[in-house]
Amino acid sequence: MPFQEIMTSLMQLFSSLGIRPNFDKGLQAYEREEFAKALGIWRPLADKGDARAQLKIGAMYKSGIGVPEDFEEALKWYRLAAEQGFSAAQVNLGAMYARGQSIPRDYQEARNWWLIAVEREDSTPDQESLMDSLGVRMITFAKERACFNLGELYEHGHGVPQDYQEALKWYKAGSGRGFTDFKAGLMYYDGRGVPQNYEKAMQWWRSAAQDFHSDAQFNLGHMYAQGCGVPQDDEEAVKWWLLAAEQGDDAAKDAADNL
């Protein structure tokens, strides 16, 4: 199940904030792949309650970066940051519950953490220190993934009654990212939770394609090739397939070559 986590991209936002020199020294070491040094810098910060350091250490243990893979240790650090109100950690903690990593799979607990990430005001002291424009982006980044994950739960009926309308509501709530907009487009294309509407599917996929979502680009090519929701246009179809092919989509390359 493709539940979303907060990993490398969020760390790039952290490095842009540049408001905690010690944490940033850890980031610099991490980016040089000096993982033991990064961990040595972050661990004292994490022990003092720095949620960013806790999140990053959790991610290292989760993925086995510079340390042996250890889901229990990852869960511990994610929980410490999540309980401080750190949205990114709440998203990751929910994902571990949804996948049953080091703990019994518990979709309800996953849902609870994702709802907190979406609905809770980020008002802890650590969060307030990040509330400049980049800090807002970081929190929004996490909430978009929480919305996607909630949509997945309702679309597939994991821990909740299957409800396509509720799934679409959450995908729309996280709109603006390729992964959420693509899913919203699929709901309109298939007519799940809403009347089938190819034009609206196209609108959502176009938004997702602008966020470099290769599956959305492929689907746009298909729609233009078949004339679904738009006038049939081979040139436009090839354009979208080639954009998807540039991102490594072999099926899109074959479609463009064979049209």
Rg, rounded, reads: 20 Å
- Overall pLDDT score: 89
The CATH class assignment of the largest domain is: Mainly Alpha
CATH architecture of the largest domain: Alpha Horseshoe
Model regions low in confidence, pLDDT < 50 over at least 5 residues: 12-19, 122-134
Task: Summarize the main sheet.
Answer: none
Span between termini:
33 Å
Strand content: under 5%
SSE order, one letter for each helix or strand: HHHHHHHHHHHHHHH
The secondary structure category is mainly alpha
Features:
mainly alpha; Serine Threonine Protein Phosphatase 5, Tetratricopeptide repeat; 2 domains
Strand and helix layout:
Layout: H1 8-17, H2 21-31, H3 35-47, H4 51-63, H5 71-82, H6 87-99, H7 107-119, H8 125-128, H9 133-156, H10 164-173, H11 178-190, H12 198-210, H13 214-226, H14 234-245, H15 250-258
Question: What is the structure about, briefly put?
Answer:
The chain has 15 helices and no strands. It has helices at 8-17, 21-31, 35-47, 51-63, 71-82, 87-99, 107-119, 125-128, 133-156, 164-173, 178-190, 198-210, 214-226, 234-245, 250-258.
